[in-house]
Structures are given as C-alpha cells and as structure tokens.
UniProtKB/TrEMBL annotation:
One of its GO terms (cellular component) is plasma membrane. It comes from Paenibacillus elgii. SUPFAM superfamilies: MetI-like. This is Sugar ABC transporter permease. It is found in: Cell membrane; Membrane. Residues 101-316 form the ABC transmembrane type-1 domain. GO terms for biological process: transmembrane transport.
Amino acid sequence: METEFTAKASPDPGPSRMIAESVSGSSRRQLLLTRMWKERYLYLLLFPGLVYFIVYKYLPMAGNMMAFQDYSAFQGFWDSEWVGLKHFERIFQDKEVLRVLWNTLYLSLLQIAFAFPVPIVLAVMLNEVRREWFKRLIQSIVYLPHFISWVVVIGMVTVFLQSEGLVNKLLHVLFGIGPVAFLQEPGWFMPLVVLEVIWKESGWGTILFLAALAAVDPSQYEAAVIDGANRWRQIWHITLPAIRSTIVILLILRLGSVLDSGFEQIFLMLNPFNKSVGDVLDTYVYVKGLTESDYSFATAVGLFKSLVGLLLIIGANRLAKRFGEEGVF
C-alpha cells in the first residue's frame, strides 16, 4: 500500500522533461552531426573564409613574439635572445619614429575630417534624387573608382600632375601660372592623398548609408510635408537620424584604424622630396622589417599600432554607448 501510494503521489514528469532526460550526450552529438550534414553546403561556403582568417590572420600572430626578442633568422623563434620591452622603449626614444607617428596621426585626422563625411553627404544627395534611372546612373559612376587599383590611380595622378601634365598646362593657359611641383612639394603630399581617397572610396562608402535610408518609411516624409517641413527640415529630422547609428559605428571602426594610413597608396606616392612628411608607420615598418632586416623593431612598431587601434575602438565604443548610441559590441 505504501509503495502504491508513493507511486501515485510522485509528480508526473512533463513532456519536455521526459524528452530532455531521454536525449543523452551522445544523442545530442548525433543530432548536431546530423544537422551539420544536412547543412553541409553552407559549411562548405564558410570553409574558405575560415581557412583564410586562420592562415593569414591568426597564425601570423605567433610572429608577434619577435617584438620581445632580438630576433635572428639563423637562430629562429625559440633560440633568439629575449629582451622584454626593449624595442617598445625604443619607439618613444627614436625621433624618427615620433616623426613618422605624427605624420600618420595627422594624415588620419585629415581623412576623418574631410574624407569621412563625403559618403554621408553623397548618400543624402542620392536619397533626394527622385528619378530612379538617373539615381542608378550616378551610383554606378561614383562606385566605379573603388574597383580601380591604387597602382592605376597613382599612375593617373602622376600623368595629370607632372610638370608637363594636363593640370599644369591648364594653369599656365588659364592663369599664367608656371609649373607647380605637385608631386615633389611636401606641402602638396597630404592634400593629394586625401583627395585621392575621396575620389576613390567615397562612392563605395555610400552603400551602407543608402541601405540604412532604404529602411525609412516614406510616410514619415509625407507627414513632414503635411506639417509644412521643407527639404532641409526633412533631411535634418528624418534622413540624418535614420543613418546616425550607422555613422557612429563606422566612425568607431575608422578610429580603430587611425594608425593605418594605407600602405600601397602612400608607398606609391613617396619620393625623396616628400619623404619627410609622407613616411607613415606602414611604410616605416616595411623599410625597417624588409629593407633593413630589423625584424624585432618592425614587429614592435606594428604591435604598438594594433594595440593603439584596439584601445581606440574600445574607448569610442564605450563613449558612444554613454551617449545612448548602439556601439559595435
């Protein structure tokens, strides 16, 4: 009787509990493998990208140990002498590094101040175009420079701006100005770099902003028109708030690469006349690491640049969240 009473008094396990207890660890693994097999083509699409990041992004990180060594190619990673923070101290003591660091920061600030807002303005202008065929035509024209390599772009700039180039001929014919050494004069180096970035990348940068604007309900503009808002009011109160979070996220990511000025473009623009203002961290690491074989110091400079970028991203992300915006993470 007692046994029968106990059996009746015990709570009846629900269906979810019975299923959870019946599925053992091995069964769960089997279910996972079965699901992976069903979605095997998706994993195959993921595989090349995963291999790329492992081979070219994660495995090379092991080479950062050279920053703490007096690395010798003959002794290898494990037998080279460990010197601690010696090369990092050298970064702040070497006047050449400080000059290159200043060039990098100044160029990045110029790009943030002048090149970063251009895609925003361009996206707002394209959003105001009502004829769809004309809008698509303009988009195709401004996207095209993105697909031109920097080698071709710098080649075009050299042809146009050289002493016998088209620009100097026009200046002489229209204003009577003699040949201007655009490519040799140090004062022209950074403005030219910023203008090249604007011409090449501004159209491509509008894609994210136009995607954000596509999600705006057209009825908001209709309601604004009924309330008497003109075009400028609609842009200020509807268009710009719609892309504000996108602007913040892209600005945070841009701050993370503030010490990354773009190696290829700068390297192709450098010459002995503008090297004093054009040499940046990327080109400096290239010269120290590959030309002078100072691997440890070049690695320390590269690691320092990455750490600064990481700290800037974290700080900008926290600042954005404090002001009520959505951060990157």
